[in-house]
């Protein structure tokens, strides 16, 4: 079975090289690496070109956003499985091998695994001590998604057939596009499997994220409106009946997005007072659970992330990448 890695990049000249080396140095290297440059202006394509025939570079003349850039890469992918990867993250040496092994052993469509938010600088890997998604989510993935579970696409090796079946990424969003992709895949009821072996290091640098831009709040509200409206419109009737309380939560999120934009949009699935009550109750219960978790476990990470303290095996995986793990004080 073959693997295609797709990386969308925009102005990451100083980071894309390390990301590519992380993937090309895998114990089971990818069969195809596609980098889609989303109209960078900082010399990013020139860095990618130094990798020669090991990497296929697609240069977009105009910026299409994360969804459009990834779809451009997906259109050129030939592997049976696709790994979308962020242009600033790095992965443990067994990242692809572990996932492919579990996928094939279970004839599955998606394999996901652990990830860790990190700050990488001067050979140090600073972290908060807790690996996310170290264990599989307990229950039906679609139901858990509707209840707030987040499945990060970059932690997944995914069947290309499934990705094409749902039409790839939505291209009308700049944030939250991965959540809509996950929802559409889960609506197809794919077979999900989990492996705890590999580790994705998810680099944190909020100064360059859209949430800190001047128009970030408006952008997020618009995308939240698109996301929640699409989920409410596309969810199957059978799932909607089973997940009425969870859907109330999504209707409440939708109403908040409309309110944030001071929009005149007429919502088809207008929330009732009961929906609003259930949504606010859901938020209150979540805050209480996080507070209890902070007291009992020493952290406020949501249970859906299945957090586990970073152990020696994960620490060794970080050292193999040339970084010394360091707990943030």
Describe the structure.
The chain has 329 residues and is of the alpha/beta class. The chain folds into 2 domains: 3-210 and 307-327, Spore Coat Polysaccharide Biosynthesis Protein SpsA, Chain A (Alpha-Beta Complex); 211-305, no CATH class. Helix content is 42%, strand content 18%. The chain contains 12 helices and 14 strands. It has helices at 16-24, 44-49, 65-76, 95-106, 141-146, 160-165, 177-186, 216-234, 237-242, 244-261, 273-297, 312-320, and strands at residues 3-9, 32-37, 56-59, 81-86, 90-91, 110-112, 115-121, 124-127, 130-131, 156-159, 192-194, 200-203, 308-309, 324-327. A 7-stranded mixed sheet has the order 3-2-1-4-10-6-11, with helices on both faces. A 5-stranded mixed sheet has the order 5-12-7-8-14. A two-stranded antiparallel sheet has the order 9-13. Helix 1 (16-24) links the parallel strand 1 and strand 2. Helix 7 (177-186) runs parallel beside helix 8 and helix 10 packs across helix 11. The longest helix has 25 residues, at 273-297. The protein is globular, with a radius of gyration of 20 Å.
The radius of gyration computed from the alpha-carbon positions, rounded to a whole number of angstroms, is 20 Å
Strands side by side in the biggest sheet: 3-2-1-4-10-6-11
Fraction of residues in β-strands: 15-25%
Q: What is the correct CATH architecture of the largest domain?
A: Alpha-Beta Complex
What's the helix count?
Answer: 12
Question: What is the CA-CA span between the terminal residues?
Answer: 44 Å
CATH fold description of the largest domain = Spore Coat Polysaccharide Biosynthesis Protein SpsA, Chain A
Kindly report the oligomeric state of this protein: single chain
Number of self-contained structural domains: 2
Report the average pLDDT across residues. 88
The counted number of beta strands is 14
Structural class category: alpha/beta
């Amino acid at each position: 079975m073959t693997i295609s890695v797709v990386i969308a990049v925009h102005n990451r000249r100083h980071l894309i090289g390390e990301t590519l080396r992380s993937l090309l140095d895998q114990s089971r290297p990818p069969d195809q690496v596609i980098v889609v440059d989303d109209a960078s202006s900082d010399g990013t394509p020139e860095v990618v070109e130094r990798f020669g025939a090991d990497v296929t570079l697609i240069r977009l003349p105009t910026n299409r956003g994360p969804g459009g850039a990834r779809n451009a890469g997906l259109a050129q992918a030939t592997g049976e499985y696709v790994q979308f990867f962020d242009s600033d993250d790095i992965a443990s040496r067994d990242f692809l091998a572990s996932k492919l092994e579990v996928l094939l052993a279970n004839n599955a469509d998606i394999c996901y695994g652990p990830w860790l938010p990190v700050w990488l600088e001067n050979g140090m890997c600073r972290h908060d001590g807790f690996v996310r998604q170290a264990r599989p989510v307990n229950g039906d993935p679609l139901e858990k998604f509707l209840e707030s579970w987040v499945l990060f696409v970059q932690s997944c090796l995914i069947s290309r057939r499934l990705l094409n079946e749902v039409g790839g990424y939505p291209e009308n969003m700049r944030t939250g596009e991965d959540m809509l992709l996950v929802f559409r895949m889960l609506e197809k009821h794919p077979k999900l499997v989990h492996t705890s072996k590999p580790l994705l290091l998810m680099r944190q640098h909020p100064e360059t994220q859209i949430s800190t831009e001047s128009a970030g709040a408006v952008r997020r509200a618009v995308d939240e409106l698109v996301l929640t409206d699409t989920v409410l419109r596309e969810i199957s009737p059978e799932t909607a009946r089973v997940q009425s309380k969870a859907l109330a939560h999504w209707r409440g999120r939708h109403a908040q997005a409309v309110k944030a934009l001071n929009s005149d949009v007429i919502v088809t699935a207008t929330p009732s007072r009961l929906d609003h009550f259930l949504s606010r109750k859901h938020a209150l219960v979540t805050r209480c659970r996080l507070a209890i978790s902070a007291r009992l476990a020493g952290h406020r990470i949501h249970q859906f992330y299945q957090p586990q303290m970073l152990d020696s095996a994960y620490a060794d995986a970080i050292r193999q990448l040339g970084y010394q793990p360091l707990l943030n004080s």
